[in-house]
Amino acid sequence: MNLETHEEFLNVLQNTRLGPRILGFEYLLGLSATDDGILEILSFKKYVPFLVKYIGETNCNKETLSLAYKCVINISTVQEGVMALLNSKDLVISLLNRICDINYKFIKEICYILSNMSRYKEILQQNDCFLDAELLDKILKVFMSNHSEVKEKFQFLALYFANMSGYPSRRKLMLENEKFIDFLFSSYIFSSETNVRRIGIALTLRNLCSEQSSHAMLLEKGILPVLLLPLMGSEEYEEEEMEKLPLECQYLEDAKERERLPVIRRALVQALSLLCYTKRGWEYLKEHSVYYVTRELHKWEADFDTKEAIETLVGFLLVIDYSKMSHEADELVTPSVTEILKDIPDFVVS
After folding, report:
1. What is the 3-state secondary structure (H, E, C) of the chain?
2. What is the mean pLDDT of residues 64-84?
């Protein structure tokens, strides 16, 4: 479309009666479902500001508002789209404030947008809930609701947390927020949660463990059983091995099953490896029978990538002297820095 055609089409979206406007939004949504289509939308600088303003309105037709949100979801799947969206001042804060109302109709869509946008470091250009303790408290309150319908709507916010924890500045703010840490350590997170929520929380825990200066605090607050329990089955241990395990991990029921998703098991194993970056963490894991848990997990594990991560962890735990820096087999080799979450697909809505 040329400039004049874009202007006419935008006028349809803004000023015509409902029927043609719905058709216009449907066309724009179809266009946004491909990378080339998104680039076409971005080439006309007025579309994105219009969409951002439109989804912020309170008196719009619900059908057109839903279509507008879906367009923004698609635009947020590419870096150029995220940069265009972030040109709208305080967009992130505005979206976060909207989802504090659990009755808002488009919570799921906003969580998709935040999850997508947070994959790109440009999101750090704007303020967010980690810079506003009061707002974060509100976000956690709704995210932790036990109502199944509410939990389902907010599940992709867990991926937003995971992505943001990959950025050092936000990771440090998370670690300084006691309520956020307590929320992550809550015992229910690996039981009845949806897969998406559990993946997001596991990856957040993994990323937090990359902050070496916080290892002592994380261990003191009880991160070890949070990481170990999902990796444990109903296997029996020698009495001496069992007594060294954290209390929460001792004498588990015969029906105890391991976490079923490899991506979660792998993230938790990587988190344990990251705790070996510091002598305090390495010693703590050795003192609490983590080797024996990983030994049993390795026997059971069928996923190649997870098994490889387990072998890396076992290698760290078998080191005799943490400070020994030779080229012998018992040298402690620092693990590679964990990646920011990249293995969750985009949420393109067509």
Report:
1. CCHHHHHHHHHHHHHCCHHHHHHHHHHHHHHCCCHHHHHHHHHCCCHHHHHHHHHCCCCCCHHHHHHHHHHHHHHCCCHHHHHHHCCCCCHHHHHHHHCCCCCCCCHHHHHHHHHHHCCCHHHHHCCCHHHCHHHHHHHHHHHCCCCHHHHHHHCCHHHHHHHHCCCHHHHHHHHHCHHHHHHHHCHHHHCCCCHHHHHHHHHHHHHHCCCHHHHHHHHHCCHHHHHHHHHCCCCCCCHHHHHHCCHHHCCCCCCCCCCCCHHHHHHHHHHHHHHCCCHHHHHHHHHCCHHHHHHHHHHHCCCHHHHHHHHHHHHHHCCCCCCCCCCCCCCCCCCCCCCCCCCCCCCCCC
2. 96
